[in-house]
Design goal:
The chain is α/β, with parallel strands linked by helices. The chain contains 4 helices and 5 strands. It has a 5-stranded mixed beta sheet with strand order 3-2-1-4-5.
């Protein structure tokens, strides 16, 4: 597979209080690292794990809307990545709703990859989540 036509999607969820006011940040980037679309949204009160799952599911929904077929998701949530890959069981019923949804969205892609990355490599998605958290409205 050529990485030339692969989209990289960096996702981050943030919760202040855990649970508390939560937001997501999602950055769509081409193979050169240029961002061509982003999401920065408040999601109400949620735990950090729910915010992380929400960021992934919103990223997947948007990629489908944009007809992106080859995708690589990058998250700094080891829990979400390992649960999505099936390496960890999902025991929390609220998280299971997101896992089930993401599994059903995954079949829309010709190539789907998800990988854990250190927080430093996810700075843009973190920034987008914080913009939403800090927005007044």
């Amino acid at each position: 597979m050529s990485t030339k036509d692969t989209t990289f999607v960096y996702c981050d969820g943030s919760s202040r209080g855990n649970p508390g006011p939560a937001a997501i940040g999602v950055s769509f980037q081409n193979n050169d690292g240029n961002e061509f679309f982003s999401i920065s949204e408040k999601i109400g009160n949620a735990t950090n794990n729910i915010a992380e799952w929400c960021a992934l599911s919103r990223g997947m929904e948007e990629a489908i809307k944009q007809n992106i077929k080859k995708i690589k998701f990058r998250l700094d949530s080891e829990l979400v990545v390992k649960q999505m890959k099936g390496e960890y069981k999902v025991k929390n019923k609220d998280l299971m709703v997101f896992k089930t949804k993401c599994d059903s969205l995954k079949i829309s892609f010709e190539h789907f990859d998800i990988q854990y990355i250190p927080r430093e490599q996810n700075a843009r998605a973190d920034q987008l989540a914080n913009f939403a958290q800090d927005a007044k409205a």
